[in-house]
Amino acid sequence: MARAALRLGVRALALLVFVSVALLPLVSSDDGYRHCEGVVRGWADASSGRVKDGDKLSLKDLLFFLHIPRTGGRTYFHCFLKKLYTNAQECPRSYDKLRFDPSHPDCKLVVSHDDYSLTSKLPRERTSVVTILRNPVDRVFSTYEFSVEVAARFLVHPNLTSAKLMTTRVLTKSRAVSTLDIWPWKYLVPWMREDLFARRDARGVYKVHSSKKVNAYDVDDMVMPLHRYINDPVAHEIIHNGATFQITGLTNNSYFDGAHEVRHCVRKHPDLGRIVLEVAKNRLDQMLYVGLTEDHEESARLFAHMVGAQVLSQSGTLTLDLKEDLPIETDSHPSMEPEDEETNGHLHTWLAE
Fold it and tell me: What is the annotated signal peptide range for this record (predicted)?
Protein backbone atom coordinates (compact mmCIF):
# COMPACT_ATOMS: atom_id res chain seq x y z
CA MET A 1 0.00 0.00 0.00
CA ALA A 2 2.92 2.35 0.67
CA ARG A 3 4.23 1.62 -2.82
CA ALA A 4 0.80 2.43 -4.28
CA ALA A 5 0.74 5.71 -2.37
CA LEU A 6 4.19 6.62 -3.70
CA ARG A 7 3.17 5.76 -7.26
CA LEU A 8 0.04 7.93 -7.05
CA GLY A 9 2.06 10.72 -5.48
CA VAL A 10 4.57 10.76 -8.32
CA ARG A 11 1.80 10.88 -10.92
CA ALA A 12 0.01 13.64 -9.01
CA LEU A 13 3.14 15.78 -9.03
CA ALA A 14 3.60 15.10 -12.75
CA LEU A 15 0.10 16.46 -13.40
CA LEU A 16 0.92 19.61 -11.47
CA VAL A 17 4.11 20.13 -13.44
CA PHE A 18 2.11 19.83 -16.67
CA VAL A 19 -0.64 22.23 -15.69
CA SER A 20 1.59 24.75 -13.93
CA VAL A 21 4.32 25.00 -16.56
CA ALA A 22 2.92 23.90 -19.91
CA LEU A 23 -0.22 26.00 -19.73
CA LEU A 24 1.40 29.23 -18.59
CA PRO A 25 2.12 31.94 -21.18
CA LEU A 26 5.49 31.41 -22.80
CA VAL A 27 6.64 35.02 -22.92
CA SER A 28 8.15 36.85 -19.97
CA SER A 29 9.13 40.47 -19.54
CA ASP A 30 11.64 42.40 -17.47
CA ASP A 31 8.99 45.00 -16.68
CA GLY A 32 8.44 44.86 -12.92
CA TYR A 33 10.20 41.51 -12.64
CA ARG A 34 12.05 42.27 -9.42
CA HIS A 35 8.89 43.48 -7.74
CA CYS A 36 6.97 40.41 -8.84
CA GLU A 37 9.77 38.08 -7.81
CA GLY A 38 9.68 39.63 -4.35
CA VAL A 39 5.90 39.26 -4.18
CA VAL A 40 5.92 35.60 -5.23
CA ARG A 41 8.91 34.61 -3.10
CA GLY A 42 7.49 36.46 -0.11
CA TRP A 43 4.22 34.57 -0.45
CA ALA A 44 6.08 31.27 -0.92
CA ASP A 45 8.22 31.83 2.19
CA ALA A 46 5.11 32.57 4.23
CA SER A 47 3.50 29.39 2.86
CA SER A 48 6.40 27.05 3.56
CA GLY A 49 5.31 25.75 6.96
CA ARG A 50 5.65 21.97 7.23
CA VAL A 51 4.24 19.31 9.49
CA LYS A 52 6.19 16.46 11.01
CA ASP A 53 6.38 13.47 8.67
CA GLY A 54 4.73 11.23 11.24
CA ASP A 55 1.84 13.66 11.73
CA LYS A 56 0.80 14.03 8.10
CA LEU A 57 -0.33 10.40 7.90
CA SER A 58 -2.48 10.68 11.03
CA LEU A 59 -6.10 11.78 10.70
CA LYS A 60 -6.74 14.93 12.72
CA ASP A 61 -9.99 16.01 14.37
CA LEU A 62 -11.23 17.84 11.25
CA LEU A 63 -11.05 16.52 7.67
CA PHE A 64 -11.10 19.09 4.85
CA PHE A 65 -11.94 17.58 1.45
CA LEU A 66 -10.53 20.14 -0.99
CA HIS A 67 -12.82 19.35 -3.90
CA ILE A 68 -11.23 20.30 -7.22
CA PRO A 69 -14.06 20.55 -9.78
CA ARG A 70 -14.49 17.78 -12.37
CA THR A 71 -12.28 15.24 -10.64
CA GLY A 72 -14.94 12.78 -9.47
CA GLY A 73 -15.26 14.32 -6.02
CA ARG A 74 -18.98 13.61 -5.80
CA THR A 75 -18.22 9.88 -5.97
CA TYR A 76 -15.85 10.13 -3.01
CA PHE A 77 -18.30 12.24 -1.05
CA HIS A 78 -21.32 9.96 -1.50
CA CYS A 79 -19.59 6.58 -1.63
CA PHE A 80 -17.04 7.15 1.12
CA LEU A 81 -17.36 10.29 3.22
CA LYS A 82 -21.15 10.17 3.63
CA LYS A 83 -20.80 6.61 4.89
CA LEU A 84 -17.89 7.37 7.20
CA TYR A 85 -19.33 10.48 8.84
CA THR A 86 -22.79 10.96 10.32
CA ASN A 87 -24.95 13.94 9.40
CA ALA A 88 -24.18 15.46 12.77
CA GLN A 89 -20.43 15.18 12.10
CA GLU A 90 -20.62 16.83 8.68
CA CYS A 91 -20.10 20.59 8.73
CA PRO A 92 -22.87 22.67 7.12
CA ARG A 93 -22.43 22.63 3.34
CA SER A 94 -20.11 25.49 2.48
CA TYR A 95 -19.70 25.38 -1.28
CA ASP A 96 -20.84 28.99 -1.66
CA LYS A 97 -19.67 30.45 1.66
CA LEU A 98 -18.73 29.36 5.17
CA ARG A 99 -21.82 28.42 7.13
CA PHE A 100 -20.13 27.63 10.44
CA ASP A 101 -17.54 29.13 12.77
CA PRO A 102 -14.29 27.79 11.27
CA SER A 103 -12.22 28.67 14.32
CA HIS A 104 -14.32 26.42 16.56
CA PRO A 105 -15.99 23.89 14.26
CA ASP A 106 -18.53 21.67 15.99
CA CYS A 107 -18.13 19.11 13.22
CA LYS A 108 -15.55 16.78 11.70
CA LEU A 109 -15.92 17.00 7.90
CA VAL A 110 -15.64 20.05 5.60
CA VAL A 111 -16.33 19.59 1.88
CA SER A 112 -15.88 22.59 -0.40
CA HIS A 113 -14.60 23.96 -3.72
CA ASP A 114 -12.78 26.59 -1.65
CA ASP A 115 -9.04 26.60 -2.17
CA TYR A 116 -6.31 25.80 0.35
CA SER A 117 -6.52 29.29 1.85
CA LEU A 118 -9.60 28.06 3.73
CA THR A 119 -7.19 26.32 6.10
CA SER A 120 -6.18 29.76 7.38
CA LYS A 121 -9.68 29.93 8.88
CA LEU A 122 -9.59 26.41 10.31
CA PRO A 123 -7.71 25.11 13.36
CA ARG A 124 -4.71 24.10 11.25
CA GLU A 125 -3.04 21.88 13.84
CA ARG A 126 -6.24 19.84 14.09
CA THR A 127 -7.04 19.69 10.36
CA SER A 128 -6.16 17.05 7.75
CA VAL A 129 -6.56 17.79 4.04
CA VAL A 130 -7.40 15.37 1.21
CA THR A 131 -7.96 16.03 -2.49
CA ILE A 132 -8.17 14.44 -5.94
CA LEU A 133 -6.24 15.50 -9.05
CA ARG A 134 -7.05 14.87 -12.70
CA ASN A 135 -5.18 15.04 -15.98
CA PRO A 136 -5.47 18.77 -16.78
CA VAL A 137 -6.47 18.22 -20.42
CA ASP A 138 -9.37 15.97 -19.41
CA ARG A 139 -10.30 18.40 -16.65
CA VAL A 140 -10.44 21.31 -19.13
CA PHE A 141 -12.61 19.30 -21.52
CA SER A 142 -14.94 18.34 -18.68
CA THR A 143 -15.14 21.93 -17.43
CA TYR A 144 -16.10 23.11 -20.90
CA GLU A 145 -18.74 20.40 -21.27
CA PHE A 146 -20.25 21.11 -17.87
CA SER A 147 -20.31 24.87 -18.50
CA VAL A 148 -22.22 24.30 -21.74
CA GLU A 149 -24.56 21.74 -20.17
CA VAL A 150 -25.63 23.93 -17.25
CA ALA A 151 -25.82 27.16 -19.27
CA ALA A 152 -27.94 25.46 -21.96
CA ARG A 153 -30.66 24.70 -19.40
CA PHE A 154 -31.53 28.38 -19.38
CA LEU A 155 -32.38 28.31 -23.09
CA VAL A 156 -35.94 27.28 -22.20
CA HIS A 157 -36.44 31.01 -21.57
CA PRO A 158 -37.24 33.35 -24.48
CA ASN A 159 -34.27 35.62 -23.75
CA LEU A 160 -31.40 36.25 -21.35
CA THR A 161 -33.32 38.86 -19.35
CA SER A 162 -36.13 36.39 -18.68
CA ALA A 163 -33.62 33.73 -17.61
CA LYS A 164 -31.97 36.09 -15.14
CA LEU A 165 -35.30 37.24 -13.69
CA MET A 166 -36.50 33.67 -13.21
CA THR A 167 -33.22 32.71 -11.57
CA THR A 168 -33.48 35.59 -9.11
CA ARG A 169 -37.12 34.84 -8.34
CA VAL A 170 -36.57 31.13 -7.71
CA LEU A 171 -33.48 31.64 -5.57
CA THR A 172 -35.16 34.35 -3.51
CA LYS A 173 -38.15 32.11 -2.94
CA SER A 174 -36.26 28.91 -2.12
CA ARG A 175 -33.11 30.37 -0.54
CA ALA A 176 -31.33 27.45 -2.16
CA VAL A 177 -27.66 27.28 -3.11
CA SER A 178 -27.29 27.09 -6.88
CA THR A 179 -24.51 26.63 -9.38
CA LEU A 180 -24.42 30.40 -9.82
CA ASP A 181 -23.31 30.77 -6.19
CA ILE A 182 -20.41 28.33 -6.33
CA TRP A 183 -16.84 28.77 -7.55
CA PRO A 184 -15.88 28.39 -10.38
CA TRP A 185 -19.34 27.97 -11.91
CA LYS A 186 -20.52 31.36 -10.66
CA TYR A 187 -18.11 32.81 -13.25
CA LEU A 188 -18.13 30.16 -15.98
CA VAL A 189 -21.88 29.46 -16.28
CA PRO A 190 -23.06 33.10 -16.65
CA TRP A 191 -20.27 33.66 -19.18
CA MET A 192 -21.36 30.65 -21.24
CA ARG A 193 -25.06 31.42 -20.74
CA GLU A 194 -24.67 34.92 -22.15
CA ASP A 195 -22.74 33.54 -25.11
CA LEU A 196 -25.39 30.88 -25.85
CA PHE A 197 -28.20 33.44 -25.90
CA ALA A 198 -26.16 35.76 -28.13
CA ARG A 199 -25.54 32.97 -30.64
CA ARG A 200 -29.19 31.90 -30.58
CA ASP A 201 -30.30 35.48 -31.19
CA ALA A 202 -27.83 35.81 -34.05
CA ARG A 203 -29.15 32.77 -35.91
CA GLY A 204 -32.82 33.43 -35.12
CA VAL A 205 -34.78 32.00 -32.20
CA TYR A 206 -37.22 29.99 -34.31
CA LYS A 207 -34.87 28.98 -37.08
CA VAL A 208 -34.39 25.24 -37.34
CA HIS A 209 -30.68 24.57 -37.44
CA SER A 210 -29.08 21.58 -39.07
CA SER A 211 -25.31 21.54 -38.89
CA LYS A 212 -23.25 19.21 -41.05
CA LYS A 213 -20.29 19.51 -38.71
CA VAL A 214 -19.36 16.42 -36.75
CA ASN A 215 -16.96 18.10 -34.31
CA ALA A 216 -19.10 18.88 -31.27
CA TYR A 217 -16.37 21.17 -29.94
CA ASP A 218 -16.49 23.47 -32.97
CA VAL A 219 -20.09 24.36 -33.83
CA ASP A 220 -19.60 28.10 -33.92
CA ASP A 221 -23.19 29.14 -34.68
CA MET A 222 -24.53 27.09 -31.75
CA VAL A 223 -22.00 27.36 -28.94
CA MET A 224 -18.63 28.89 -28.15
CA PRO A 225 -16.01 26.59 -29.75
CA LEU A 226 -13.61 24.88 -27.40
CA HIS A 227 -10.55 26.61 -28.88
CA ARG A 228 -12.07 30.03 -28.19
CA TYR A 229 -13.16 28.95 -24.72
CA ILE A 230 -9.72 27.82 -23.60
CA ASN A 231 -7.97 30.87 -25.07
CA ASP A 232 -10.30 33.40 -23.46
CA PRO A 233 -8.89 35.45 -20.53
CA VAL A 234 -11.64 34.03 -18.29
CA ALA A 235 -10.35 30.50 -18.91
CA HIS A 236 -6.76 31.59 -18.34
CA GLU A 237 -7.75 33.15 -15.03
CA ILE A 238 -9.86 30.29 -13.68
CA ILE A 239 -9.36 27.02 -15.54
CA HIS A 240 -5.87 26.53 -16.96
CA ASN A 241 -4.07 26.46 -13.62
CA GLY A 242 -7.20 26.04 -11.55
CA ALA A 243 -6.06 22.89 -9.73
CA THR A 244 -2.63 24.32 -8.92
CA PHE A 245 -4.12 27.58 -7.68
CA GLN A 246 -6.66 25.69 -5.55
CA ILE A 247 -3.89 23.68 -3.91
CA THR A 248 -1.81 26.80 -3.30
CA GLY A 249 -4.75 28.95 -2.19
CA LEU A 250 -4.39 31.45 -5.04
CA THR A 251 -7.71 31.28 -6.91
CA ASN A 252 -9.84 34.35 -7.50
CA ASN A 253 -11.96 32.96 -4.66
CA SER A 254 -9.07 32.97 -2.17
CA TYR A 255 -9.20 34.11 1.45
CA PHE A 256 -5.65 35.43 0.95
CA ASP A 257 -5.81 39.13 0.10
CA GLY A 258 -2.63 39.01 -1.99
CA ALA A 259 -3.75 36.14 -4.24
CA HIS A 260 -4.59 38.40 -7.19
CA GLU A 261 -1.15 40.03 -7.19
CA VAL A 262 0.64 36.67 -7.04
CA ARG A 263 -1.46 35.33 -9.94
CA HIS A 264 -0.81 38.52 -11.92
CA CYS A 265 2.94 38.22 -11.40
CA VAL A 266 2.98 34.56 -12.42
CA ARG A 267 1.01 35.33 -15.57
CA LYS A 268 3.29 38.25 -16.43
CA HIS A 269 6.53 36.40 -15.62
CA PRO A 270 5.93 32.69 -16.29
CA ASP A 271 9.23 31.49 -14.84
CA LEU A 272 7.96 32.58 -11.40
CA GLY A 273 5.34 29.85 -11.79
CA ARG A 274 7.96 27.32 -10.75
CA ILE A 275 7.97 28.88 -7.29
CA VAL A 276 4.21 28.38 -7.10
CA LEU A 277 4.69 24.81 -8.29
CA GLU A 278 7.12 24.08 -5.45
CA VAL A 279 4.57 25.33 -2.92
CA ALA A 280 1.91 23.13 -4.55
CA LYS A 281 4.17 20.07 -4.36
CA ASN A 282 4.89 20.83 -0.71
CA ARG A 283 1.17 21.15 0.01
CA LEU A 284 0.42 17.82 -1.66
CA ASP A 285 3.22 16.18 0.28
CA GLN A 286 1.65 17.35 3.54
CA MET A 287 -1.85 16.12 2.72
CA LEU A 288 -3.21 12.98 4.28
CA TYR A 289 -4.35 11.65 0.91
CA VAL A 290 -4.16 12.61 -2.79
CA GLY A 291 -6.16 10.57 -5.31
CA LEU A 292 -6.13 10.49 -9.11
CA THR A 293 -9.26 10.48 -11.26
CA GLU A 294 -7.54 8.29 -13.85
CA ASP A 295 -6.78 5.65 -11.19
CA HIS A 296 -10.14 5.54 -9.45
CA GLU A 297 -9.89 1.94 -8.29
CA GLU A 298 -6.38 2.12 -6.86
CA SER A 299 -7.09 5.56 -5.41
CA ALA A 300 -10.27 4.31 -3.76
CA ARG A 301 -8.48 1.39 -2.13
CA LEU A 302 -5.78 3.74 -0.88
CA PHE A 303 -8.43 6.11 0.47
CA ALA A 304 -10.09 3.25 2.34
CA HIS A 305 -6.80 2.28 3.99
CA MET A 306 -5.39 5.74 4.70
CA VAL A 307 -8.55 7.67 5.55
CA GLY A 308 -11.49 5.31 6.01
CA ALA A 309 -9.73 2.99 8.43
CA GLN A 310 -8.67 5.89 10.65
CA VAL A 311 -12.16 7.43 10.69
CA LEU A 312 -13.67 4.10 11.72
CA SER A 313 -10.97 3.55 14.32
CA GLN A 314 -11.57 6.96 15.88
CA SER A 315 -15.32 6.40 15.88
CA GLY A 316 -14.91 3.08 17.68
CA THR A 317 -15.87 0.86 14.75
CA LEU A 318 -13.59 -2.17 14.83
CA THR A 319 -14.31 -3.77 11.46
CA LEU A 320 -13.84 -2.45 7.95
CA ASP A 321 -15.05 -4.38 4.91
CA LEU A 322 -12.88 -3.13 2.03
CA LYS A 323 -14.31 -5.61 -0.51
CA GLU A 324 -10.92 -5.92 -2.16
CA ASP A 325 -12.18 -8.11 -4.98
CA LEU A 326 -14.98 -5.83 -6.15
CA PRO A 327 -13.97 -3.50 -9.00
CA ILE A 328 -15.03 0.11 -8.80
CA GLU A 329 -16.90 1.34 -11.85
CA THR A 330 -15.24 4.13 -13.78
CA ASP A 331 -16.62 6.30 -16.53
CA SER A 332 -15.65 5.14 -20.00
CA HIS A 333 -15.44 8.76 -21.19
CA PRO A 334 -12.36 10.44 -19.67
CA SER A 335 -13.99 13.85 -19.49
CA MET A 336 -17.32 12.88 -17.96
CA GLU A 337 -18.20 13.01 -14.28
CA PRO A 338 -21.45 12.53 -12.34
CA GLU A 339 -23.13 15.85 -11.68
CA ASP A 340 -22.49 17.46 -8.33
CA GLU A 341 -25.56 17.40 -6.14
CA GLU A 342 -24.53 20.71 -4.61
CA THR A 343 -24.23 22.47 -7.94
CA ASN A 344 -26.99 20.98 -10.04
CA GLY A 345 -29.96 19.93 -7.99
CA HIS A 346 -31.68 23.29 -7.91
CA LEU A 347 -31.19 24.00 -11.61
CA HIS A 348 -33.47 21.07 -12.37
CA THR A 349 -35.99 22.68 -10.01
CA TRP A 350 -35.81 25.94 -11.96
CA LEU A 351 -36.64 24.23 -15.23
CA ALA A 352 -39.58 22.42 -13.68
CA GLU A 353 -41.23 25.62 -12.50
Answer: 1-29
User: pLDDT tier at 28 (50, 70, 90 boundaries)?
Assistant: very low
Q: Is the peptide bond before 184 cis (omega within 30 degrees of 0)?
A: yes
Catalytic residue (one of 7, 11, 93, 124): 124
**Which residue among the candidates 70, 74, 139, 145 is catalytic per the annotation?**
145
Query: Is 145 marked active-site?
Result: yes
Q: Residues 74-88, buried b or exposed e (16+ Cβ, 10 A)?
A: bbbbeebbeebbeee
pTM for the full predicted model: 0.80
DSSP 3-state helix, strand, coil percentages of the chain (rounded to 5)? Answer: 55, 5, 40
Find out whether 112 and 68 touch, Cβ atoms under 8 Å.
no
Q: Which long-range contacts (CB under 8 A, 24 or more apart) does 38-42 make?
A: 39/258, 39/261, 39/262, 39/265, 40/262, 40/265, 40/266, 40/272, 40/275, 40/276, 41/275
Residue range 144-172, pLDDT digits in tens: 999 999 999 999 999 999 999 988 888 77
- Please name which of 217, 195, 181 lies closest in space to residue 343, comparing C-alpha atoms: 181
In whole angstroms, what is the distance from residue 72 CA to residue 221 CA? 31
DSSP H or E stretch at residue 66: strand 62-66
Average pLDDT, the chain: 82
Mean pLDDT, residues 241-262 taken together: 96
- State how far the alpha carbon of 267 is from the alpha carbons of 30, 97, 124, in Å: 13, 27, 30
Q: Is 347 helix (H, G, I), strand (E, B) or coil?
A: helix
Q: Which residue has the higher pLDDT, 65 or 105?
A: 65
Instruction: Report the distance separating Cα 54 and Cα 31, nearest Å.
Output: 44
